Model the fold of this input.
Amino acid sequence: MENPKNIPKGADYKIPENYFIDFQERLHVQIEFEEIVGTKKTTGFTVPKGYFANFPEKVLQQTAKPTKVVSLFKTKWIYAVASVAAILLFLFILEPFDTKYTFDAIENDTIAEYLETNTVLSAYDVGELLTDEELENISNTIQLEDTEVLDYLDTITDPYDLMIQ
Done:
């Protein structure tokens, strides 16, 4: 039986009036009709008489005739030339190996977003990896406004943690 959850809510399943009252009577009439007429069902296709009598000979006659052989060498040659042309087109016109990416071509916001979402290094880990000179150079090149620092502290840190430190 179907799961009641699969049945649409707006569907009305109604049985016609007196369906079960005269069902037995209709069933008996159908059975009697099939006994009298028969239940033989035909597909509408017929085979001529004597068709299978000489069928094997006809098949052997048709297979004994020589068949025309089509050479595939020309098409294989065309496929080979087309594939070489496609490779040359890819290598010389599209120049896939000539593209050189540098950090200058990438925007700073993109790099910052990548580092925020895809790294597991903390600020302490980065500090351990860099020397004192590199840290001073970074701190000298970064210029932050006071409002940016306050906004960062409001969104990232917990005020309770700041009071403890």
About this structure: The chain is about 55% helix and 0% strand.
